[in-house]
Write a structure and sequence with these properties.
174 residues; 7 helices
Length: 174
């Protein structure tokens, strides 16, 4: 049940990443039209950058779950039995630690910028914690997805991302 709930959360973040990708397209098209009309859209590049960051980070957990990330599976597939499981645990543990540490510091940065009421330096001042939140949420979800697969491997199950590699249309759903 927890796995299905997390899968829904990862899917929602993936959909939101797609929404931000469409927003980039809309911003770029609006800039093109504005230039043809000899006008500008203030901070359009800045907003497209915010959307790019949100797209990149919010999609991490969903794409990991679907087996789309580059991993060490080329090496781990050559191993069998306990060696395979041990190497998978090691890779997921290192990945979880790095991602967890990055998520921790990113969340701390967002909280700090919120407390300081910092804004962007563009023509349109935006509270900096708003665009940084997409990055923080995406990293937290990615860390949770990696930890979830680590726990599965420790308990003797296959990681969910392997299901996504074998059945890409199912996108790693159990």
């Amino acid at each position: 049940m927890l796995t299905r709930g997390l899968a829904a959360l990862y899917r929602a973040a993936g959909v939101l990443a797609g929404v931000f990708l469409v927003a980039i397209c809309v911003i770029v098209c609006a800039q093109i039209v504005a230039r043809q009309l000899d006008t500008i859209i203030p901070s359009a590049d800045q907003f497209a950058g915010f959307c790019l960051a949100a797209t990149s980070f919010l999609g991490l957990a969903w794409s990991f779950r679907g087996g789309s990330h580059i991993r060490v599976t080329l090496f781990t597939r050559a191993l069998r039995g306990p060696a395979h499981r041990l190497m998978m645990m090691l890779a997921l543990a290192i990945g979880s630690a790095i991602t967890g540490l990055l998520a921790w510091h990113t969340v701390a940065m967002v909280i700090q910028n919120f407390a300081r009421s910092e804004v962007t330096s563009g023509l349109v001042p935006v509270p900096i914690w708003l665009p940084q939140s997409g990055m923080a949420i995406g990293l937290v979800l990615f860390a949770v997805a990696m930890i979830e697969d680590l726990v599965r491997v420790i308990l003797g199950y296959d990681p969910i991302f392997e299901d996504g590699e074998e059945n890409p249309t199912e996108n790693g759903e159990p």
